[in-house]
From TrEMBL:
Taxonomy of the source species: Bacteria, Pseudomonadati, Pseudomonadota, Alphaproteobacteria, Hyphomicrobiales
Superkingdom per UniProt: Bacteria
UniProt keyword annotation of tRNA processing present: no
Full protein name: Purine efflux pump PbuE
Main location: membrane
Length: 380
């Protein structure tokens, strides 16, 4: 089953990359469409709004479909949409195709987490989910630097075309490697009521949204921020995305190794505290490119690990509700993306670029406070 898990990881790589890609090419998009940085950032903000609504709805609507067909089908549609964006004539056509694309892509990450949980014994589920989530780390470590560099040299259309081809390749791998008849517990209307009444699940979902809000306040505008604060060019911006992403990859690997010893609760807390330390260093070092780079690396160590641990904790909190809670956690991530990118856009447009780091840190600190409220009776 290793090849199946690897294909699921690749799918998360593609999903993370297509969702985050506009952040890596904001300037080429703005220049190509003749719009401002804030308007280019709306490709992420509006997409995140659709994602947060679509994730549970699409999850519910597809809960009886074989995961093999569902996940491969999602990648096919993502690929076709990106090939269309590569040939689209302007901003509004790209935005329209992107919104349709993310409606479908919303299903991938939560259903991949549910699928991999069915492929391994219960004792290995937290590690397996964390492994599949490494794809998101790689999307930043390898994908975002590629997007930032290639879009500055060859244009955003070329990048959209590459993303489309990669998605179609991933679809083929998923179809070949996943077993047939892989189905999760179907959604039911009573499941939604059970989730709302479950205190731990609600706290975990709010924690996800708050933590991601802080991160995306900066991530969405990382390139333009670096240019404004340090005079960075496309190569330096690509290096920053690489530092952040490589450290995220390493953090994910570390999380898979230590979660068996420390448990998901403690591993989650370590990850969020690491994010807070990195964001604070970024904010305090604004204008000093080396200090900001170190901050981005420390921050990166925690970002993907924190998200994978949230998925694992939600699954453990109520396994029969996993199909619902994992989808809702993805919605919480996208709520955070929408809130963070919207606040960041307003602050960037009003030249509050140094203050953005401190506001981001406040969000992450609040999520750490929420983490304390989720402490199990016997934290492991």
């Amino acid at each position: 089953m290793f090849l199946a898990r690897l294909a699921l990881l690749l799918g998360n790589f593609i999903t993370g990359l297509v969702i985050l890609a506009p952040a890596g090419m904001l300037q080429p998009l703005a220049d190509g469409f003749g719009v401002g940085i804030r308007e280019a950032g709306f490709l992420i903000t509006y997409g995140a709004v659709v994602l947060c609504i679509a994730s549970p709805i699409v999850g519910w609507a597809t809960s009886t479909i074989d995961r093999r067909l569902l996940l491969a089908g999602v990648m096919v549609l993502v690929g076709v949409a990106h090939l269309g964006m590569a040939m689209a004539p302007g901003y509004w056509s790209v935005l329209g195709l992107r919104l349709l694309m993310v409606t479908v892509a919303a299903a991938y990450t939560p259903q991949a987490a549910s699928a991999v949980a069915l492929l391994v014994p219960e004792k290995d589920r937290a590690g397996a989910i964390a492994f599949v989530f490494i794809g998101w780390s790689l999307s930043v470590a390898a994908g975002m630097p590629m997007v930032a560099y290639l879009s500055s040299k060859l244009g955003y259309g070329f990048c959209f075309g590459v993303l489309g081809a990669l998605a179609l390749l991933c679809a083929a791998l998923l179809f070949v490697t996943l077993p047939r008849g892989l189905k999760t517990t179907p959604f039911s209307l009573s499941s939604w009521g059970d989730v709302v009444r479950h205190r731990l699940i609600v706290l975990l979902l709010v924690m996800t949204a708050v933590q991601v809000s802080g991160q995306f306040l900066i991530i969405t505008y990382m390139g333009p921020l670096l240019t404004a604060l340090t005079g960075a060019d496309a190569s330096v911006i690509a290096i920053f995305f690489a530092i952040y992403g490589v450290c995220g990859f390493l953090g994910s690997i570390a999380a898979t190794r230590i979660v068996g010893t420390f448990g998901a609760y403690k591993t989650s807390g370590i990850a969020v505290a690491t994010i807070l330390a990195g964001v604070l260093l970024w904010a305090l070092g604004s204008g000093a490119v080396i200090v900001m780079g170190i901050g981005a690396g420390i921050w990166g160590l925690g970002f993907a690990a924190a998200n994978s641990m949230q998925q694992a904790r939600l699954y453990a909190a109520a396994p029969p509700l996993a199909s619902v809670t994992v989808a809702l956690n993805s919605s919480a991530i996208y709520v955070g993306q929408a809130i963070g990118s919207a606040i960041g856009g307003v602050m960037f447009a009003n030249a509050m670029r140094i203050e953005m780091g401190f506001v981001a840190a406040a969000f992450v600190a609040a999520s750490l406070g929420l983490w304390l409220l989720t402490r199990p009776r016997h934290a492991a």
